[in-house]
Amino acid sequence: MKARCCMQNSLEGITVVAVEQAVAAPYASSRLADAGARVI
């Protein structure tokens, strides 16, 4: 649990432009958002 806590906002301040079409890409974008990135 400790590692999950530390990685929660590791991408804070990063903006990701998501251009996706299939199942895997939206999953990756949601993981980036979970890590604190702003996904557009």
Please tell me about this protein's structure.
The protein has 40 residues and is mainly alpha-helical. It is 42% helix and 10% strand. The protein has two helices and two strands; from the N terminus they run αβαβ. The protein has helices at 2-7, 24-34, and strands at 15-16, 38-39. Strands 1-2 form a two-stranded parallel ribbon. Strand 1 (15-16), helix 2 (24-34) and strand 2 form a beta-alpha-beta unit. The radius of gyration is 11 Å and the shape is flat. The N and C termini lie far apart (28 Å). The mean pLDDT is 83.
Question: Which short descriptors sum up this protein?
Answer:
2 helices; mainly alpha; two-stranded parallel sheet; 40 residues; single chain; flat
Mean pLDDT: 83
Strand order of the largest sheet: 1-2
Fraction in helix:
40-55%
Runs in which pLDDT lies below 50 for 5 or more consecutive residues are none
Summarize the structure.
With 40 residues, the chain is mainly α. It has helices spanning 2-7, 24-34; strands at 15-16, 38-39. It has one domain (2-39).
Fold topology:
Blueprint: H1 2-7, E1 15-16, H2 24-34, E2 38-39
